[in-house]
Amino acid sequence: MDYATLLQVADSTVRLSVPLLLACLAGLYSERAGIFDIGLEGKMLMAAFTSAALAAVSGSVWIGLLAGIASSMLLAGLHGLASITFRGNQLISGVAINFLASGLTVVIAQAWFEQGGRTPSLQGAARFEPITLPLAETLQGVPVFGPLYAELISGQTALAYVGFAMVPLTWWLLFRTRFGLRLRAVGEAPEAVDTAGVSVIRMRFAAVAIAGVLCGLAGAYLATALQAGFVREMTAGRGFIALAALIFAKWRPWYALSATLLFGLLQAVALRFQNIDIGTFTVPVQFMDALPYILTVVILAGFVGKAIPPRAGGEPYVKER
Amino acid sequence: MTLMRTFLGAAATLALGATAALAEPAVIFDLGGKFDKSFNEAAFNGAERWATETGGKYLEIEMQSEAQREQALRRFAETGANPIITTGFAMADPVAEVAPDYPDTKFVNIDGFLPEIPPNVQMIVFEEHQGSYLVGMLAAMKSANGTVGFVGGMDIPLIRHFACGYAQGAKAVNPDISIIANMTGTTPAAWNNPVKGGELAQAQIAQGADVIYAAAGGTGVGVLQAAADADILSIGVDSNQNHLHPGKVLTSMLKRVDVAVYKSMIAGDALETGSMQVLGLADDGVGYAVDENNEALLSEEMVAAAEGAKAKIIAGELDVVSYYANDSCPVLDF
Questions:
Q1: A116/B contact by beta carbon, under 8 A
Q2: Mind listing the pLDDT tens digit for each residue in B46-86?
């Protein structure tokens, strides 16, 4: 395998990891605040549809992005209303959101565009184009680093850079600010936060809203950067892989980055090397496709140690009387 | 009470109406959905053509999950729909299961295979390898790098059948050509994963492919998009997909599912059943698309070569090996 191939696989890894990373961070905020969120998939799907639809109608990808984030936040608000305000079961509310998004997107798309639950293909300014970073051309000649910079670091879409920037930002916000401390506390011991005079409800809603924004970015990335339009069920289970990555990452931002990059890498390798020859026998592509899931089970069972979720996760907060 | 009677009366009239309109045909679209721009959409177009020409109405349903197949068939049969047209290989077994229970209803399945065909079932299959052979020739003649790609949907014999014909056509033009063939997945979800299709196409482009043939239902939309983004050529499938990216789609392998559906609906009650109908190049059941979107891409020599091969295949002078013949392809490993 030569260097160019390596770079292409790395490039593909980045593209496939970004939606997982954004969704994984979304889950991280929500679950750190004690709200389980299996509705990541649904929120991404809704955002993918809305961003593609509005981008197609308005011709501007930025309007699409804002609409995508808004629609995802709307579903996040619904999840919050059901599980925080009305203290419903968070898992059931999440499942409901997944079903709602899966059905609504197709129905609205069909009524709106009449193309069988898809949006028209996006062109030009209605899509996120790759950004060429400064000096990419000049540095091309530098051995090793030049191609790395030109092919991998430069030439991603805006949302990919946003996704990676979210990792240090999340770390800083959660572990270095008062807001972050309170947010984590709400997921571990909400009664303590309440005693300190901070509203648990408000903190949890804030976390769910941030999750909505991040899922919105992930969905918009799928529909307007990776692809040029929405196709039904186009998230294809990425929300659930992101959840697995979150457990894998023990609810920490930097670990989340490595977990999602690992999953992206496995997918990219499976795409590029369909059947891998190892001397005497061939590894079938089906095995490569299943590898992320096998790895999740194996690593969770023995290697990462105990993955302990936030203690108050999944439980609605009831003030003592 | 009077109100009750009115309702009952209305219900009775409706019921009578239903029996009177006995010969309403029904179409069951497979998992890709009727607007997949490909296989199912071709079936839909055929049904629509029948509806506009005859002014008739037909019943329809899109499958959402594997479990619905038999239920949908039984429902339509109970309603009195006739004939019931189903698309997709996966409907073959449910049809075989249900058909004996409704001997007066005629069933049609497109793309499926049954070892024993019940007397009231008509199977329609296409010689996709012949059409794929022709587009494979065109791809090889157009390729500057000597590498062409194939992206399949779900890994099933039918899709390998496409790939095998394509590879034979490409090899016929250029024996040294390298063919990269990938499948999207092993579950029906592989028909609807444009992001993965796009990534597969990008991986093939990185390996030098400059013409990529997508036989992948909705996933193909992502393949064609990735090819257009990378400024290389793609080949569409089943329906004419040339218009999706004008000037970037070399051609489309046409499979006239629309004609098959249309003819079955026209035949109605008189439909011949109990046999397997094979539509190939000779019956215009398969072919390649030329229209204003791709005229400029096909040179006269290319078209002449393809037409020459077509005539030879029809005359029986040229034999395109079918993947089904011995479940393997002479020129391509999977």
A1: yes
A2: 999 999 999 989 999 988 888 889 999 999 999 989 899 99
Say if the Cβ atoms of A232 and B192 lie within 8 Å. Answer: yes
Domains assigned to chain A: 3-130+144-302 (1.10.3470)
Q: Which of A116, A121, A271 is nearest residue B33 as measured by Cβ atoms?
A: A116
Calculate helix-pair angle for A61-80, A90-113, nearest 10 degrees. Answer: 140
> Is residue B192 located within the same domain as residue B295?
yes
Do B213 and B298 lie in one domain? The reply is yes
Whose CA is closest to B175, among B290, B42, B331?
B331
Is there a contact between A207 and A28 (Cβ–Cβ < 8 Å)? Answer: no
User: DSSP secondary-structure letter at B329?
Assistant: -
Integer Cα distance of A317 and A87 in angstroms: 7
Same domain, B142 and B98: no
pLDDT tens, residue by residue, A138-175:
777 777 788 888 878 888 999 999 999 999 999 999 99
At B211, which helix (H) or strand (E)? strand B211-215
Residues B174, B108, single domain; the answer is: no
Q: How far is A267 from chain B (nearest CA, A)?
A: 9
pTM of the predicted protein model: 0.83
What is the helix, strand, coil percentage profile of chain A, to 5?
Answer: 70, 0, 25
Q: Between β-strands A281-283 and A276-278, what pairing exists: parallel, antiparallel or unpaired?
A: antiparallel
- Shortest distance between the Cα of B198 and any Cα of chain A, in A, equals 8
Whether residue A147 has a cis bond before it, omega within 30° of 0: no
Does B92 map to a domain? Answer: yes
Quick one: tokens of B217?
């239902």
B48 in contact with A, Cβ within 8 Å: no
Q: What is the CATH number of the domain that holds B87?
A: 3.40.50.2300
Please choose, from the candidates B147, B200, B169, the residue with its C-alpha nearest in 3D space to the C-alpha of residue B330: B169
SS (H, E, C) B253-316: EEECHHHHHHHHHHHHHHCCCCCEEEECCCCCCEEECCCCCCHHHCCHHHHHHHHHHHHHHHHC
CB A94 within 8 Å of CB A79? yes
Give A187-222 as a DSSP string. Answer: HH-HHHHHHTT--HHHHHHHHHHHHHHHHHHHHHII
Best mutation target among B36, B38, B195, B219 (most A Cβ atoms within 10 Å) is B195
Q: What percent of chain A has pLDDT over 70?
A: 96
φ/ψ (deg, to 5) at B216: -145, 25
Q: Does B195 touch chain A (CB under 8 A)?
A: yes
In this prediction the ipTM stands at 0.81
| Residues B69, B119 share a domain | yes
Residue-range definition of the domain harbouring residue B164: 128-255+286-326
Distances (CA, A) of A298 to A21, A88, B36, B174: 21, 33, 38, 47
> In the structure encoding, which two tokens stand for residue A220, read together?
């918009």
The residues with which B251 forms a beta bridge, in sequence order, are: B235
Binary contact (A16, B199; C-beta < 8 A): yes
